[in-house]
Amino acid sequence: MATCGSRMQERLPRNSSVRTMRDRLVQVLFGRLAALLLIGCIAGCAGSIRWGAAPRVDRLDGLKPGTSTTADVLLALGEPRGRGATRFSPDLPPRSTWFYELVESDGKNVKLKILVVFIDGQRYDGHFWFASTALVDVKE
Question: How far is the C-alpha of 83 from the C-alpha of 118, rounded, in Å?
Answer without folding.
Answer: 10
